[in-house]
Amino acid sequence: xxxxxxxxxxKRGKHSSKVVVIYGAFSAVPPLRRLYDSIFYVDITIExxxxxxxxxxxxxxxxxxxxxxxxxDPKRLFYVDYVLLRKHKKYLIKYIDWYIMDGEQQYMMISxxxxxxxxxxxxxxxxxxxxxxxxxxxxxEWLKALKPKLKEILLSPKVPISWEIxxxxxxxSVRVSVDGVILEMPFLTLLFKEAKHLLGGYVxxxxxxxxxxxxxxxxxxxxxxxxxxEGLAIQVHPDRKYLKEHFNENFSHHESYYILDVGxxxxxxxxxxxxxxxxEFYEDVVKAKDYGIPxxxxxxxxxxxxxxxxxFLNPAGTIHASGRNQVVLEPDLIPLEYPGYIFHFYDYLRxxxxxxxxxxxxxxxxxxxxxxxxxxxVEHLQPKPKLIRxxxxxxxxxxxxxxxxEYVMYRLExxxxxxxxxxxxxxxxxxxxxxxxxxESKNRKRGIKLNFGETAVIPASYGKYxxxxxxxxxGWRTPAGTPLGPKCKILKFSIKSTSx
Length: 500
What we know:
There is one protein chain. Helices cover 24% and strands 31% of the residues. A hairpin with a 5-residue loop joins strand 18 and strand 19 (407-414). Helix 5 (112-122) crosses helix 8. It is of the alpha+beta class and 500 residues long. The chain starts with a helix and ends in a 5-residue tail after the last strand. The strands form seven sheets. Strands 4-5-8-15-10-13 form a six-stranded antiparallel β-sheet. It has a six-stranded antiparallel β-sheet with strand order 17-18-19-26-21-24, with no helix packed on it. The chain has three domains: 2-119, no CATH class; 124-380, Jelly Rolls, CATH 2.60.120; 386-495, Jelly Rolls (Sandwich).
């Protein structure tokens, strides 16, 4: 109120010779915004925020303590600070006069009109967000072999990379060239400016302006000693009812595993065994957590040999995990304020990168667990491809949908090219076989090229487009030694709409 009164007095000419700068988070809330002559918005990417949190010691979340676990501050930032700042940004972005990117070594400033043009141009064609990498104890060597430049940005080339995040709207950034200078800004800035063009009307309304589709890679291929010969923790994700009751979230957390590549002994965990005793399982989980007593998780959880191109649907409540020696593509549906709720049953008594035991969550894990046993998961969560259309040298298969989740997955297979249409709904597409393809609009809009293992966002407004095989990859092998080709294959991930 004091700031408001002071600004009003300046406006009335009592301090006409003064230039007053008011700065800080929330300094342009609605009662104050209308009083300013110019508004400068300073933005930062999540990657840069995490770097400062990790390296500089100058960024802290609300409630931080010096003895906090290394993973606690990012969680606090996402759960409290970032949620509030994100909502404020969504409100304020349409009123700013100048946009400033706070980068690692410099600031970059552009006018709001130029920002609008950049976002409009980006939303007019496919978008390849900048990947976001996360280290972890079970991380493998596949991603680093596929992308040698990764080793240049790691603190050490020996750091295990567990995840490559290719699309999570609140994590990703996009890079554009402005007069020969690279501007990197959060994907959310683009989304807040062009949500309806990017998402389409149905997704915009259903998910309140968020892009609910996510895409990431779990790399356990040839993982090191820290992994103890295993993959991800045995885990579960909660449904809407559980999330609303315990975390005040409004949607479920649904996942899936598309097996992108495999090595010897690769396997995937899914569902409870028919004879699994849940009371005994709970006791073993608690003993492992509290007393460090290992147990045989295979007594309770199914494991299935992994085959390249297979799909495992993991709707909320399904116990699951990616096992050892494989690379899993995760098309997930996570339209949440927090970027995912993962409750662990068992993590092989592993020590995390911060030197502390990995988190186990018995109460939440068993509270969210649904009684899905072997026969049920094989019948309902391991779908077989269904041919839905074909032509000369191309086919499209429906490979995954389930009653519990609103997502749907297709695989496009083609020797030369294939045509498709967004039908007014945003899509994520990933090249899962073949070396290089191009995506071209039938309406003279901007296109894009995708390499093996890359994901692009296809805006809802893009309409009809053609994917062309530029190199089928014959003669080229993945880091696991798997030959590519002779067809190019695209995984297409989208939302089921009752309006279609």
